[in-house]
Amino acid sequence: MFIRYKNDGKGRSVPVAKIYTQKEHPITNSQIDKDALWAIRKIQQAGGEAYIVGGAIRDMMLSRKPKDFDIATSLSPRQVQRLFWNARIIGRRFRIVHLFFSGKIIEVTTFRSDEENFEDGRNNLYGTIEQDARRRDFSINSLYYNPSNGQILDFNDAMADFRKKVIRSLIPLSYTFSEDPVRMIRALKYQATTGFSLKHDVKKAIKKNAEHIQSCSTSRLTEEISKILASGSSYQILMNLRKYGLLQFILPCWSMYAGIDAVRESLEGLDSRINEAKKDGEPVAKEEQLYAFIKPLLVIDPEMAPEELFHEAFRQAKVLISPMTPPNYELEKAVDMVLRDLGIKRNRGRRSAEARALRKKPNTLGRKSAANEELSSVPQKKRKKKKKGSKRERVALPEQAKTLAEEHDL
Ligand code: ATP
Ligand code: MG
């Protein structure tokens, strides 16, 4: 391990980061997605700094397979976009770049400043790597890995927290959870998924700020719940949220029943299926996750006709999980699975949300579709004239892309 110093402007050298060499940590390039390595190499060849950051490093430090790879860079979103034909800039204020590959998106984020002036809007949005490291939520999410030399940069003594198995907030607790209440959910999620403990002051701050979660957008909460159901520790995380007084605000209806045995059994069953599936590399479908979430709580009257029964069960499911809004076709499939357990099979009408979604869905995220998206930005003049009154067609972003964009636009 060696230390990175920087000049403090008064002629003195001050330490800013610990640098761990390849031999001093467990991460190797063979664990990293090939496209992410390719993207990093391309940015570095263009003269930029680029690192794998965040959850992927956290997972690999714990010898787990990351579910996705995020990149942090010194290049601006425009500079990144110019390097990649499959890039798309998203986000309202803090703009990030999505690189589209077949079946996945790699997110490239420019180092973010910690000097943002919220009143002035765009002031100092982008910053240095040190500032970026200070803005991250928890120390275990703040390591930077450079695949070209195998070094890990640690600006926050995060390695020590991995050794001590603790979750420590980097942003002062006096405002981190009121600034972004989703961080409370994230803290409780990591407590369950890593097995690390939350520092006492973090626990106290969550209890104190629980009510702030009500100010979060439905789309961000939906995204978090969806990640929780897919985590393999859903039961423990949801119980953590309950214990800290957050669940009643996040899922007001579902939380009323969270304590019953059937809920525990169903979610523990889901968690073990997901953990088994992770070993085989086979993902558990979203509808199956929702099925486990709603199944114990639907009240079914088998006297009803199948189609009527479906509508009633679907309505109940919507209320149960509100204000969470997963795609209707996933919820429909989940309800169908519950009915199938009871031996009830309905005729899928042509007007089901699934059918509608299939018609509306953009192409898969393959190279072809990224190319299509590039083509879709051809100036308006060259397009065929639309019928009078018809709205200009827009290429729909996948659900994940939309919510991630919002997530980074605090
Ligand atoms: P997971 O996807 O399992 O929730 P993750 O850590 O990869 O874990 P992302 O939402 O992909 O989570 O975020 C990537 C990184 O961005 C995080 O590891 C963290 O460093 C930073 N980050 C994400 N959300 C926030 C936030 N609300 N506040 C501060 N930093 C954040
Ligand atoms: Mg991530």
Walk me through this protein's architecture:
- With 410 residues, the chain is of the alpha+beta class.
- Among the domains are: 1-164, Beta Polymerase, domain 2 (2-Layer Sandwich), CATH 3.30.460.10; 285-360, no CATH class.
- It is built from 18 helices and eleven strands.
- The chain has helices at residues 34-45, 55-61, 77-83, 129-135, 158-164, 176-179, 182-194, 200-209, 218-229, 234-243, 247-250, 261-280, 286-294, 306-321, 328-341, 353-360, 367-375, 399-407; strands at 2-7, 13-20, 50-53, 70-73, 87-90, 96-101, 104-110, 143-146, 151-154, 166-167, 197-198.
- It has a nine-stranded mixed sheet with strand order 1-2-9-8-3-4-7-6-5, sandwiched between helices. It has a two-stranded parallel ribbon with strand order 10-11.
- Strand 8 (143-146) and strand 9 form a beta hairpin.
- Helix 7 crosses helix 10.
- The longest helix is centred in the middle third of the chain and has 20 residues, at 261-280.
- The chain is globular and about 80 Å long.
Features:
binds magnesium ion; 18 helices; Beta Polymerase, domain 2; binds adenosine-5'-triphosphate; alpha+beta; disordered C terminus; 410 residues; two-stranded parallel sheet
